[in-house]
Write a structure and sequence with these properties.
The protein is mostly helical and about 150 residues long. The protein is built from five helices and no strands. Helices cover about 75% and strands about 0% of the residues. The chain is elongated, with a radius of gyration of 19 Å. Bound molecules: glutathione.
Length: about 150
């Protein structure tokens, strides 16, 4: 039977799928969380939205709660998408299993803690630390990838 690196035959890929699934699901939740805050605070950014959901309420694009959740969502997109794409290339380069697992776990934990720090909110440097740890995990995968590719290009 043939072995494929990007399949559940490969334990590194299985773990990557699990931890990316967690951070992608966390990112996906941010949309409904924003909607919930909009409904609770009656905050809508478009005239057609206020007309339908809250007639008589003015358009508002500056609510601090809604904007905070939106920034948190954007920060996830800035970090989770690169992690997922670079992670696929990283797994295909067949890294050491234990090191890869540690990178996946550190990234997932850092992003969950980043969200908690952003939404509670916790005083800095809590959120900045979470961001840099997660960024470092993706940077480590990128460095490994280039070191591995260097031989071939
Ligand atoms: N796009 C980010 C790049 C740097 C970054 O991600 N910083 C972290 C730690 S301070 C963060 O949580 N930034 C807040 C944000 O993206 O809204 C920014 O504008 O701040």
């Amino acid at each position: 039977m043939s072995y494929t690196v990007l399949s559940f035959d490969n334990d590194t890929f299985t773990n990557f799928a699990f931890y990316s699934g967690i951070v992608l699901a966390k990112t996906l939740i941010m949309g409904p969380l924003t909607s919930q805050a909009r409904i609770r605070h009656k905050v809508y950014g478009n005239p057609e939205d206020t007309k339908f959901f809250a007639p008589g309420v003015a358009v508002n694009t500056t609510d601090s709660t809604v904007e905070r959740i939106r920034r948190c969502h954007l920060n996830d997109l800035e970090n989770v998408v690169p992690f997922t794409l670079i992670g696929l290339l990283y797994v295909s380069a067949e890294p050491d299993y234990d090191k890869a697992l540690m990178i996946f776990r550190v990234f997932a934990a850092s992003r969950i803690l980043h969200t908690i720090s952003y939404l509670v909110p916790l005083p800095q440097p809590a959120r900045a630390s979470c961001f840099f740890v997660g960024w470092g995990a993706t940077a480590a995968m990128t460095a490994f990838l280039f070191a591995r590719m260097y031989k071939y290009v």
